[in-house]
Design goal:
This protein is an alpha+beta fold. The chain is built from 15 helices and 31 strands. The two termini are 26 Å apart. The structure holds ligand 9G3. Ligand 9G3 binds at residues 84, 88, 91-92, 107-108, 139, 158, 201, 409, 411, 439-441.
Length: 569
């Protein structure tokens, strides 16, 4: 491609863009925003997107998944069969056709694919079956941000598998897991597969694939000693054992005027936060539940929700707190509640002695409260957020946090959708069974940003060769100079004749502009035809390291493969 005619509108600066990848993709002319979370992919962006898509497609085909294409426009009826038309909020894009019928633009396609398969497959002999698509999804995010990382219209590879039994699902899940490892490795990503929470989609057993990035939205807990890694929403906490004290004095009330937070009361009473019990009243599927964790710990709401297998789990409203406790939020405690409610506590609370809790009275706390003596806990469970320095639940090593960008997510769905949609097959005994299903996603357009996040510096993008829009960036420093123009044109023709993808900067721009643009665009290997062209010498240079050398123009084809190979190391 010749830059004189190419549509690559580079920019020196852009308005605020918190993610480096977002800023660089805009400045290098890869994408342009049409609306919040809605992007144009310009020619360079499209070429990268196609390279990523091709690698995903190759690895999905390799595990025997069959590619199809489902409609983005789905009749609401399908989504009413699973109840998701009603219970997914404003994120679900709804519209009406000209006859006033309800439709949605698909955010994912469990219903669509299950409807297709239930109409065509009815015997175990045709199982297992894995189908996938690479298709545009719509999710009306409240706060679309960070460019391609959280869009409202985006490209996803979503695959769905259908099985006669759980063992078969486990095999396909493992096949996807390995395919994802191959895909993210080929894409040059530094990633981790982490245990994750299945969330609203349901099912047991799920992993997320996280591209490590300090600016990533997700936090993962990683063990320094073994390969344990989990989304912190899921990471298990090991409860340390402490013995109960027998000689704790009777509890007593103390005034703590105007001090609501544990921070304030801990300072006011000069008692450590570890001696406090944090009391949070939740409404879980509408029922008030008092949740207790140690004062220096945080409640993990995903664990609380999963403990009750609840649909809804949120902090109680102020009036519910007053009704149940008799006091405002900062003074709630497990002793002397106005209304009896279920009390659950983190394992760490079980081993506590001589604690401080809210007195269920404004401006008052209780000292010397002894769990098990002064109040009963209905259930102890692992419901706190893991912290850096905690013990690894697998090997006892030390847990530390990393931030990541979720680029893949694999789920064992079970029969949730097939049951809801009466998608059955006849098993070997002729008995009707619901399909056992799995679903597996990769954020394809999000990957472009994740790769850019990991492969860039402040001057611009640095694409791994497998996904770069071109392999070689050929730059004629001064196209007005006959020697340079001749040598550059000859090289351009020779490289293209060899099937090498070349971006040729043949513009009549100053050298400085050309090199700044080349640094932004991020093509791994650069060939510079400059003043030494008249001696037949050109410079070959790596974008990543800046390593370069002067070589004879006629040796470029011979030298290129070794430079392309070291471009990624
Ligand atoms: C919705 C809306 C947003 C959603 C969903 C449904 C996320 C929804 C989870 C999944 C699960 C898997 C197949 C590929 C891999 C991920 N956001 N999810 O189900 F209606 Cl508005 O999409 N689907």
């Amino acid at each position: 491609m010749r830059q004189k005619t190419a549509f690559i509108p580079t920019l020196r600066t852009v308005a605020e863009a918190e993610m480096l990848s977002h800023q660089l993709l805009l400045r290098a002319g890869y994408i342009r925003q049409l609306a919040a979370g809605v992007y144009n992919f310009l020619p360079l962006g499209q070429r990268v997107l196609q390279k990523v898509t091709e690698i995903v497609r190759e690895e999905m085909n390799r595990i025997g998944a069959q590619e199809l294409l489902l409609p983005a426009l789905n009749p609401a009826e399908l989504w009413q069969e699973t109840g998701r038309f009603e219970n997914y909020g404003p994120e679900l894009v709804k519209l009406q056709d000209r006859h006033g019928r309800d439709f949605i633009l698909g955010p994912t396609h469990e219903e669509t694919i299950t409807d297709l398969v239930r109409g065509e497959i009815n015997t175990y002999k045709k199982l297992p079956l894995t189908l996938y698509q690479i298709q545009t999804k719509f999710r009306d995010e409240r706060r679309p941000r960070s460019g391609l990382l959280r869009g409202r219209e985006f490209l996803m590879k979503d695959s769905y598998s259908f099985h006669a039994d759980r063992e078969s699902l486990d095999q396909t899940y493992e096949d996807h897991y390995q395919a994802y490892v191959r895909i993210f490795t080929r894409l040059g990503l530094n990633f981790r597969a982490v245990e994750a929470d299945a969330g609203a989609i349901g099912g047991k057993g799920t992993h997320e694939f996280m591209a490590l990035a300090d600016s990533g939205e997700d936090t993962i807990a990683i063990c320094e000693a073994c390969d344990y890694a989990a989304n912190i929403e899921m990471a298990e906490v090991v409860a340390e054992v402490t013995e109960k004290q027998e000689d704790v004095p009777k509890f007593e009330k103390v005034p703590t005027p105007g001090h609501g937070t544990i921070e304030e009361v801990s300072t006011f009473l000069s008692l450590p936060k570890e001696q406090f019990i944090k009391n949070l009243l939740f409404e879980i599927d509408g029922e008030p539940v008092l949740v207790l964790v140690r004062g220096d710990h945080e409640v993990n709401e995903v664990k609380v929700k999963n403990l009750f297998e609840a649909d809804r789990c949120e902090l109680a409203s102020e009036e519910t707190v007053r009704r149940v406790s008799g006091a405002p939020a900062g003074f709630v405690g497990p002793v002397g509640l106005q209304q009896k409610v279920k009390i659950i506590a983190d394992f760490a609370v079980q081993g506590m002695n001589d604690t401080v809790v809210g007195a269920n009275e404004v401006d008052a706390h209780l000292l010397h409260v002894q769990p098990g003596r002064d109040f009963e806990v209905d259930q102890y469970a692992d419901i706190r957020l893991i912290q850096e320095g905690d013990v690894c639940p697998r090997c006892g090593g030390v847990i530390r946090f990393e931030r990541g960008i979720e680029v893949g997510h694999v789920f064992k769905l079970g029969t949730r959708y097939s049951q809801a949609m009466k998608a059955h097959f006849l098993d070997a005994q002729g008995k009707e069974q619901p399909f056992v299903m799995g679903c597996y996603g990769i954020g394809v357009s999000r990957l472009v940003a994740a790769i850019a996040e990991q492969h860039s510096d402040e001057s611009g993008l640095i694409w791994p060769s497998q996904v770069a829009p071109f392999a070689v960036h050929l730059i004629a420093v001064n196209m007005k100079n006959n020697d340079q123009a001749r040598v550059a044109e000859e090289l351009y023709e020779k490289l293209r004749h060899e099937g090498i993808e070349v971006l040729f900067d043949d513009r009549l721009e100053r050298a400085g502009v050309k090199f700044k643009d080349a640094d932004l665009i991020g093509i791994p290997v650069r060939i510079i035809v400059g003043s030494k062209a008249k001696e037949g010498t050109v410079e070959i240079k790596l974008r990543r390291t800046g390593e370069s050398s002067q070589i004879p123009a006629e040796d470029v084809l011979k030298e290129l493969p070794s430079w392309l190979a070291k471009a990624d190391r």
